Amino acid sequence: MKQRKKNWETPTDFIVNNVFPYFNKSYEYFDPCPLNSDFNGLEVEWGKQNFINPPYNQKDKEAFVKRAIEESKKGNICVCLLPVSTSTKLFHEHILPENPEIRFIKGRIKFKGINSKGELVSDKCGMHDSMLVIFGGKK
Q1: Which residue ranges make up each domain of the chain?
Q2: Domain 8-135 maps to which CATH number in 3.10.20, 1.20.120, 3.30.40, 3.40.50?
Q3: Which tens digits make up the pLDDT trace of 15-55?
Q4: CB 66 within 8 A of CB 36
Q5: Parallel, antiparallel or unpaired: strands 110-114 and 101-104
Q6: How far apart are the C-alpha atoms of 22 and 69, rounded to whole Å?
């Protein structure tokens, strides 16, 4: 079985059209999960506006969502791009009680990354449906 790569970049047009509307006019944001980062986004200071597309494994996804909730309680806005997993403990015990705005994305996002053949691709859909979960900010 080939090992799947876990570094997939969110398309810029998706961020511009779906994430920027939640940020102020500066369009500046912090990304604690950037592609090929050399830092741990859970161990650094976050900004006033944050876009979080965490690795989709359960441990990392849960840790970044919990941190986004903490940051929103400090007055920061956190826009999380997550796989649609509405039957999970994370969704029911952590996300829903915060009463965030949730937007389900129509269609599947075409992420950019290195496939299992070592090729850079940008036209392959993700394996999951996606949703934006917005903690903090205006509703």
Answers
A1: 8-135
A2: 3.40.50
A3: 888 888 888 877 789 999 887 778 899 999 999 999 999 98
A4: no
A5: unpaired
A6: 16
Q: CB-based contacts of 42: which residues, under 8 Å, 6+ apart?
A: 32, 63, 64, 67
What is the tens place of the pLDDT at every residue in 71-117? 999 999 999 999 999 999 999 999 999 999 999 999 888 888 777 77
**Tokens 């075409």 belong to residue:** 110
Tokens of 57: 């494994």
3-state SS, 21-70, equals: HHCCCCCCCECCCCCCCCCCCCCCCCCCEEEECCCCCHHHHHHHHHHHHH
DSSP element (H, E) containing 123? strand 120-125
Are 98 and 72 contacting, i.e. CB atoms less than 8 angstroms apart?
yes
State the burial class of residue 102 (Cβ atoms within 10 Å of its Cβ: 0-12, 13-18, 19+): middle
